[in-house]
Sequence to fold (196 residues):
Amino acid sequence: MRIRYTFGPVPDATRVEADTVACDAFGLLARFARVRFRVPGWWSPDFRTDWSERRTSSGGRLDRITISMWKYVPADARESRPFYEYASIEDDPVCGTIDSGDWRDSLSAAVAHETAHSLADLLKGSDPVMFSGGIDEIRRRFRPHGGLWLDVYRELRTRVVNAGTRVPEEGWAGIDVPPAVWCGAAFSPRQEGVEA
Fold:
């Protein structure tokens, strides 16, 4: 059962906090991707937050990630909004629906979902299935929520979002994290204990 939420104008202070949370999450996810997936330095999609209530969904592709903010950020910052995942993975314990009681977790999961789409577009060319698989296997692996996307998304959710959207004390698998990625003109990744 899904709860119906009343949507109202979000105060400016909450909007600024939400934009910062989204940019911080994207910056951290991008930093992790550079380490885990050996993402090239030129990959830097245009990250945008969209507050228009006419925008019905978020989207991620190789060159752009757009997050539909009003779906995840309540008018009252003390409320919560869950992040509902697609039915095929909604009950997955690692990358399923999030309802932690904090809208920031839901927003971070939405950013991870769309970042996984962008990374999957990037990584298609280096996936072994592209060169050795049959056409049906290629279609299953590379469709929008296919195997490659799920592998990337599972890593992002396990190592970053579900871990509390922070860099672990020991870094990721003992690998030094590269410099922070800027997202947007007004925001930069800011995490406690992480140098940008």
Q: What stands out?
A: DSSP finds five helices and three strands in the chain. The longest strand covers residues 46-50.
